[in-house]
């Protein structure tokens, strides 16, 4: 939307950006990788009917 509240043509994106040190990025990257792996394990367990609760 433009400042007058009218719809404008095209695609518009809004995003957040941050600057990270190398150490901060490595920590973030590991956390994201672990979360993704856990989601994949949970999905496979659900699809095969395996109970992962111990």
What is the structure about, briefly put?
By secondary structure, the chain is mainly α.
Q: What composes the largest sheet?
A: none
The coarse silhouette is flat
- How many whole angstroms does the radius of gyration measure? 20 Å
Question: How many E strands?
Answer: 0
**How much helix is in the residues?**
40-55%
How far the N terminus sits from the C terminus, by CA atoms, comes to: 52 Å
Strand content: under 5%
- Low-pLDDT runs of 5+ residues are none
Order of helices and strands: H
Structural class by secondary-structure content: mainly alpha
Quaternary state of this entry equals single chain
Overall mean confidence score, pLDDT: 86
**Number of helical elements:** 1
Topology:
Elements: H1 22-48
Kindly list the characteristics that best describe this protein.
single chain; 54 residues; mainly alpha; 50% helix; flat
Account of the protein in words:
The chain has 54 residues and is mainly alpha-helical. The protein is built from one helix and no strands. The chain has a domain at 20-47. 50% of the residues lie in helices and 0% in strands. The model has no long low-confidence stretch (mean pLDDT 86).
């Amino acid at each position: 939307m433009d400042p007058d509240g009218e719809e404008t043509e095209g695609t518009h994106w809004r995003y957040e950006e941050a600057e990270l040190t190398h150490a901060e990025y490595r920590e973030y990257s590991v956390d994201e990788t672990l979360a993704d792996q856990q989601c994949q394990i949970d999905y496979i367990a659900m699809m095969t009917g395996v109970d992962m609760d111990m």
